[in-house]
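in:
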């Protein structure tokens, strides 16, 4: 029965932080229902000497409940409830990381000269040139955050995205969960070449290209006006890129797959 569970289930639980034994034990409990420690050990081939520690760890996270008796019996929490628990734990983890980096470590950062020379450029007239240059030179992945998607902008670069996809460059896009597409053709095209997820809130609009370059948009086509001009920040500074990549991965893991059917 365990062999019929898709590998993506195991991968997702391990990505969350469960060990291999914890993952196997939780999946077995979901399938088999109320079980003793020995039952779980037999079904998962987890050594009996380890099974109680594994179940205790799952219980402490709220994923497993214990029924007292002789022997003690274990039951998995419903997956839909565990998903909410996991989401809350991820949010709390991110807040701790953010607090440690920004509130505790940032005030101690003493290399002012490096900060003063942080490679950040404000681009105006050459926006299209820089966007095309970075997209053309991409080799591995492009991560796109759109807090307020502009379909004209997406249509303008749709052929470029097709060319990039043909080079096996992975394209990941995040949009707001309450966004309602107007031009379905654009989104069908994007869905054919990229993975799109929706989240409740996005902090900024931008591209992260190959983890080496980032463009943050402050322009009218995203309904953010800066002196009535289209402007972008081009950033190559590693520390800021790492912040942005961490943020993208965090909300990406919380996101839901975008489907045009859900909007129709």
């Amino acid at each position: 029965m365990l062999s019929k569970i898709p590998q993506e289930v195991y991968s997702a639980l391990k990505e969350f932080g469960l060990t291999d034994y914890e993952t196997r034990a939780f999946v077995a409990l979901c399938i088999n229902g109320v079980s003793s420690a020995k039952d779980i050990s037999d079904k998962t081939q987890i050594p009996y000497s380890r099974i109680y520690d594994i179940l205790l760890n799952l219980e402490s996270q709220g994923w497993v409940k214990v029924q007292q008796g002789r022997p003690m019996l274990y039951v998995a929490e419903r997956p839909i409830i565990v998903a909410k628990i996991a989401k809350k734990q991820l949010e709390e983890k991110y807040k701790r990381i953010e607090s440690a980096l920004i509130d505790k470590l940032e005030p101690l950062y003493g290399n002012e000269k490096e900060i003063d020379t942080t490679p950040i450029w404000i681009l105006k007239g050459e926006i299209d040139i820089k966007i095309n240059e970075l997209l053309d030179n991409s080799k591995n992945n492009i991560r796109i955050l759109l807090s307020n998607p502009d379909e004209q902008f997406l249509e303008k670069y749709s052929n470029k995205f097709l060319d990039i996809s043909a080079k096996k460059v992975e394209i990941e896009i995040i949009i707001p969960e309450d966004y309602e597409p107007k031009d379905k053709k654009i989104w069908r095209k994007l869905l054919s070449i990229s993975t799109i997820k929706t989240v409740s809130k996005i902090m900024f609009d931008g591209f992260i290209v190959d983890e080496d370059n980032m463009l943050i948009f402050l322009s009218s086509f995203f309904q953010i006006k800066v002196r009535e001009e289209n402007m972008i920040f081009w950033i190559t500074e590693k520390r800021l890129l790492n912040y942005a990549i961490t943020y993208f991965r965090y909300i990406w893991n919380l996101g839901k797959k975008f489907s045009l059917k859900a909007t129709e």
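note: The first strand starts at residue 35 and ends at 36.
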